[in-house]
Specification:
By secondary structure, this protein is of the alpha+beta class. Helix content is about 40%, strand content about 15%. The chain has helices spanning about 1-30, 65-75, 120-130, 150-160, 175-185, 195-200, 205-220, and strands spanning about 35-40, 45-50, 80-85, 90-100, 105-115. The longest helix is centred in the N-terminal third of the chain and has 28 residues, at about 1-30. It is globular, with a radius of gyration of 19 Å. It comes from Streptomyces pseudogriseolus. Pfam families: HTH_22, PAS_6. This is DNA-binding protein.
Length: about 230
């Protein structure tokens, strides 16, 4: 009991020490930068502190899909640095997610830096066109951001490739299992009550959702390497 209390106190101390760092980093990079401090122990309200407004989060807001993915990986998760994503409003963002660990090595949060590079990308495209260069890299994925964890979960479900052009009723069993397997890998089910929410979004019973999730975790995806995910 004492050890657990000491561990919690250590984590709170780390978060407290990093809180002023959030403002310092954001001030250094200016209005195109947002810094978010997350406490993964509270997925529905993981944002401890935030400076800047690239993704529109506020203190007390929910974690994003990126945080869910980290949460699902647990202590095996690794930092993700300098990756590109796009918000639902079209803002191109370069981000880094740096995990917070306690003295036992357990992941309990993250410090995230998001930089709006939309203008830079547009200038790069224009200069490339003027110079006659080839098209740029592939379009980065869209990442759901929001202060409400339910809206983030719903956005992830709605964006799933299997559901973009067909409803749940049109999917065969393997496609349904793949959908649940993919949502699980993206960290959706690491969030409390997410199974019930996914069931409601798909229009199926909670029992069916739990059954598909259980089966997806005990069966192998038959899609061969290089096949359509």
């Amino acid at each position: 009991m004492a050890a657990a209390q000491d561990q919690e106190a250590e984590r709170e101390a780390i978060l407290a020490a990093l809180t002023p760092v959030v403002d310092g980093i954001a001030a250094t990079f200016g209005p195109v930068c947002e810094v978010v401090l997350h406490d993964y122990r509270r997925p529905e309200a993981s944002v401890v502190a935030v400076a800047g407004s690239v993704t529109g989060r506020t203190a007390g807001g929910a974690m994003s899909e990126i945080g869910m993915r980290m949460l699902a990986r647990g202590d095996k998760a690794a930092d993700e640095l300098n990756y590109l994503t796009r918000t639902g409003t079209g803002t191109l963002v370069k981000s880094s997610t740096m995990l917070l660990r306690d003295s036992t090595g357990a992941v309990f949060g993250a410090l995230c830096v998001n930089v709006d590079v939309t203008a830079v990308s547009q200038a790069h495209t224009l200069l490339g066109a003027l110079a006659g260069l080839a098209d740029g890299p592939a379009e980065p994925p869209t990442t759901p951001f929001g202060n409400d964890i339910d809206s983030v979960v719903e956005a992830i479900v709605d964006d799933h490739q299997q559901l973009r052009h067909r409803g749940w009723a049109q999917l065969d069993r393997e496609e349904r299992l793949r959908l649940f397997r993919d949502l699980d890998a993206r960290g959706v089910f690491a969030v409390r009550r997410a199974v019930e929410q996914v069931a409601g979004r798909l229009g199926i019973s909670r029992a069916s959702a739990y059954s598909y999730l259980s089966q997806s975790r005990t069966t192998t995806d038959p899609t061969p390497a290089g096949g359509t995910p």
